[in-house]
Amino acid sequence: MNHPTKTCNKCKERKPIEEFHINRSSLDGLRNDCKRCRTTPSDGFYSVYYLPEHNYVGMTKHIKGRMQNHRKKGKTTEGYKIIGTYDTAIEAHYVETKMHLEGYEGFHYYETKGRKVG
Ligand SMILES: [Zn+2]
């Protein structure tokens, strides 16, 4: 029997459909990029990140552009960490808020004067 497969539009590999996340708004009900490609941070989904130099946790859909932006505003992005990547802004925002409340590696939002930057 032929097992249904789909070609990932990022790595261009043909893979079994289990290798793709479900996306109800697409024609075939699956995402166009495979699960493995989605674990590699890039534009197109939401990343929650941490700037160790500034004890700053933020989220963005465009990690590279955001880092450039931080640098333009004089922030050090050296050694930044991606805490996680998420399909939706809601999930990413939840994690970001959790980090702000619970802290991350010693960082505690309410102990800093830093205002959240869009
Ligand atoms: Zn792929």
Concise overview:
By secondary structure, the protein is an alpha+beta fold.
List keywords for this structure.
single chain, 24% helix, elongated, three-stranded antiparallel beta sheet, alpha+beta, binds zinc ion, 7 strands, two-stranded antiparallel sheet, 118 residues
Can you characterise this structure?
This protein has 118 residues and is an alpha+beta fold. It has three helices and seven strands. Strands 6-5-7 form a three-stranded antiparallel β-sheet, covered by helices on one side. A two-stranded antiparallel sheet has the order 1-2. A two-stranded antiparallel ribbon has the order 3-4. Bound molecules: zinc ion. Residues 8, 10-11, 13, 33-34, 36-37 line the site of zinc ion.
What is the residue-mean pLDDT, rounded to a whole number? Answer: 84
Helix/strand structural class: alpha+beta
- Walk across the major sheet and give the strand order: 6-5-7
Unreliable stretches covering 5 or more consecutive residues: none
Q: Label the overall shape.
A: elongated
Bound molecule types: zinc ion
Strand residues, percent: 25-35%
- What's the total helix number? 3
Distance between the termini: 51 Å
In terms of quaternary structure, the protein is single chain
Using DSSP, what is the number of strands?
Answer: 7
Count of spatially separate domains: 2
Roughly how many Å is the radius of gyration?
17 Å
> Helicity, in percent?
10-25%
Question: Which H/E pattern describes the elements?
Answer: EEEEHEEHEH
For the largest beta-sheet, the strand count, sense and barrel status come to: 3 strands, antiparallel
